[in-house]
Design a protein that fits this description.
This protein is mainly alpha-helical. 82% of the residues lie in helices and 0% in strands. It has one domain.
Length: 94
């Protein structure tokens, strides 16, 4: 999985794209910074469970796996923690 270029490219793009989108949303209201990370985790988790249950019986299972891993890794682990740090820093400024 670490040598897969599609997964690496998708993860790189989403790790760069998601913070910018979250910061744009947070300019409207500060708590909106958590919308994109939580939405990506909410979308990725059922896809992953679907793949665990069916295990390669669908034609698109490889692409669904890519989508779930990209959304979960970039949205879940990276963005939640960076959003919390950004939220705390902005909250202290105000």
């Amino acid at each position: 999985m670490g040598d897969d270029p599609v997964l690496q490219i998708g993860l790189s793009v989403m790790i760069i794209l998601m913070p910018f989108l979250s910061i744009i949303l947070s300019k409207k209201k500060l708590k909106y910074i958590f919308i994109i990370p939580l939405a990506s985790m909410i979308i990725a988790f059922p896809i992953f469970l679907f793949l665990v249950i069916l295990q390669d019986s669908t034609v698109y299972s490889k692409y669904l796996f890519y989508a779930s891993m990209i959304l979960w890794t970039s949205g879940g682990f990276t963005m939640v923690f960076s959003s919390i740090i950004y939220f705390r820093n902005k909250k202290q400024e105000n």
